[in-house]
Each structure stands twice: as structure tokens, then as C-alpha cells.
Amino acid sequence: MTFENVVKKFGDLTVLNDLNFQVERGQRVTLIGPSGSGKTTILRLVMTLEELTGGYIHVDGVPLTHLERGGKRVARRHKDVAQLTRRIGMVFQQFNLFPNMTVIENIIEAPVHVLGKSKEEARARGKELLEQVGLGDKADQHPSRLSGGQQQRVAIARALAMDPEILLLDEVTSALDPELVGDVLNVLRDLAETTDITMLIVTHEMQFAQDVSDRVLMFDSGHIIEDAQPDVMFSNPTHERTKEFLRAVL
Ligand code: ADP
């Protein structure tokens, strides 16, 4: 995944200004930095939930959005882009489960309607994934009957049901009571150990970031100010701004 001269503005506010970086296949990259520095915006751009103001994001050479010659944006998604975004999963801070569906219905919705899997096949895979996240007995419950941590593990299973090559994790434990955070992070640690899914992670859980990341990017005001392996970033950062940030959060 390549970010090339990425610019994102909301009205007059420039959130990302000429951002360039690359994430290799299978890499786990954590974005850290102060609130408002543009981390979530990056994930939302990859998920095509936001439009680029300028520049490109490529996945395997396919640009996620296109700029027409002269800079005018093509409004409709390119067919390749639709194909591409199926391979990208996202888990949100607020779970975003469908409240009127059971857990298993939440999980099979996209595999059935987007990938065209049969209900039986999607259900069987969904049950496996529920076992994997420790919720094998919750398939027929509604999300409102589950704790926040359980709902978030369902959201992870739902993302995995699409067999994503890229998983975007946006502060997935920030809305949880502290005692529920551990189970969610353990599911993600297992996933990092047992799969080669590329992960782009925004988190305030620095120990988790240290455990699972191959690389940590420190953002400030929409710029990457430091790009390092986690042991270096967390124990011996170069930039004064990084030191200050880590002193405040560690
Ligand atoms: P972070 O994840 O680092 O906390 P965000 O990417 O969420 O930062 O936000 C970066 C900046 O963009 C913030 O100033 C935020 O208020 C602004 N922003 C994000 N989304 C929108 C939006 N839809 N409309 C206007 N401003 C937005």
C-alpha cells in the first residue's frame, strides 16, 4: 500500500499535507500521535469512507481513487476499486454492528450479499470465526445482549469473514471499559501471530502497539515525524515531539 503526496482537507482545514509512505504486504504498522493529527482520517481514506483532496493511495498498484486530468475528481468508483475495497476490512471504535440482526447475521451479511457466498457456507465460516474470538456460544444473540468487549470481538469476526488482506483497526478498544480491553487485544495478538494480514492500527494501547507492530509511525499535524521499529520508537525515540508525546501517554 503506497501513499503518494496524499492531501486531505475538510473545508479550510488541511488535515494531511503531502503525506508519503509505504506499507509492505503483511506488515503491521501502528500510527501514533496526538489527537487530531490525522490518524483516523488515513484509515478512512483507505476504506474509501473519505475522498482524497489530492495525491494517491495505491494498493498493489491500483489507485483507490482517481484524479482526472486537470485535477477534477471522478465521482464514481472505478470497478477495480470496488474489487479492491472488498479486500479491506475495518473495525471501528464504536463497533457499528447492525442492532436488529443477530451476531451470526451480522457476520454473514457481507459474505452473502457482497461475495455471493451461500448462507450455509457463510454461516459455517462465521461459526468458526466466532470460536476464534471466543464467542462460539453467542451466534444467535443480538448485539445489545453482549458486553462492549464481546461486541467488538463480533465486529472483528465480521471483518474477518470477508477474508481481508488488509485490516484497519481504528482505536478498537477506546470505547471499552478497562477490564474488557484485554480480551479484545488478545484476539488481535493471536490474529497477528497466526495470519499474514496487513494491518494498519490506530491505538492508544502502547504495549499492544509494541507487541504486534513491525513499524510505528509518529504523526504530528498530519506529518510523519518519526518512522521506526517499535523497540526504537518506544525506548529511544529521536524526535523531541515523540519523546514528549510518549512521556504523556506511557
Ligand atoms: P486523529 O485520529 O489523529 O485523532 P482525525 O483523523 O480524527 O485525527 O482528525 C484530524 C482532524 O480532522 C481533526 O482536526 C478533526 O477535527 C478533523 N476532521 C476529521 N473528520 C472530519 C470531518 N468529517 N469534517 C471536518 N473535520 C474533520
TrEMBL record:
Bilayer disposition of the protein: Peripheral membrane protein
A single GO cellular-component term on record: plasma membrane
Domain ABC transporter as annotated: residue spans: 1-246
InterPro entries: AAA+_ATPase, ABC_ATPase_HisP-typ, ABC_transporter-like_ATP-bd, ABC_transporter-like_CS, Ectoine_EhuA, MetN_ABC_transporter-like, P-loop_NTPase
Gene Ontology molecular function, alphabetical: ABC-type amino acid transporter activity; ATP binding; ATP hydrolysis activity
SUPFAM superfamilies: P-loop containing nucleoside triphosphate hydrolases
Subcellular localization(s) per the UniProt record: Cell membrane
Keywords in alphabetical order: Amino-acid transport, ATP-binding, Cell membrane, Membrane, Nucleotide-binding, Transport
Domain of life: Bacteria
Family label: Belongs to the ABC transporter superfamily.
Name of the protein this chain belongs to: Ectoine/hydroxyectoine ABC transporter ATP-binding protein EhuA
Record organism: Ruania alkalisoli
Gene field: ehuA
